[in-house]
Amino acid sequence: MAIHVKMEISQTFPVLESPRLILRQITLEDCKDLQHYMTDPLVKSHTSFEPQTMLFPARLFRYFTECYETLRDLHFAIELKQTSQVIGVCSLQYWDRVKGKARLGYLLSPPCWRQGYATEAARALIQFGFESLELGRIEARCSRDNPASERVLQKCGMAYVKAVPTGFRMRDDDTLKLYAIRRGEIAD
């Protein structure tokens, strides 16, 4: 079944809907806003995007396009239904079809924080991962100094697993909190 899903996604990128959001393929036009959000110091301090990836919207778009072509990462634009404004990205990264797992990631424009959008987008992507991609486990990582992101993961039914090294130096601490959820554990 995973091969069939891969073929479908490579032909038509999925569009996911939640009560207030549409999650869809990222366009070049979206990358202008996304680059602005991703380089905001409040956002940048909690992400691991390579700085050169975010220099120009076209370079960011090329990164997302390469991810779509290889299907290693599935990055979705988070669009508000009411205004059609793209407010961030939600992703399933490091998609391993053999092991049936992926890593959840998300980022939002700071004015959209604390409104439940990250939780809503993450829940939609977790459901998609389990139901459509047939994943058995989804993981996520957050920095120790990002309690808002940790609350998103908890609201999605994810459980703390352990501290893990970042693989790069982030601020004063080089560990992240690892959370995970298995199929069948989705929170309502």
Describe this structure in words.
With 188 residues, this protein is of the alpha+beta class. The protein has a single domain, classed as 3-Layer(aba) Sandwich (Aminopeptidase). Helices cover 34% and strands 33% of the residues. The protein is built from 6 helices and 8 strands. The chain has an 8-stranded mixed sheet with strand order 1-2-3-4-5-6-8-7, sandwiched between helices. Helix 2 (28-38) packs across helix 4 (57-70). It starts with a helix and ends in a 6-residue tail after the last strand.
Summarize the structure.
The chain has helices spanning 2-11, 28-38, 41-44, 57-70, 117-131, 147-155; strands at residues 16-17, 21-25, 74-80, 86-96, 101-108, 137-143, 159-170, 173-182.
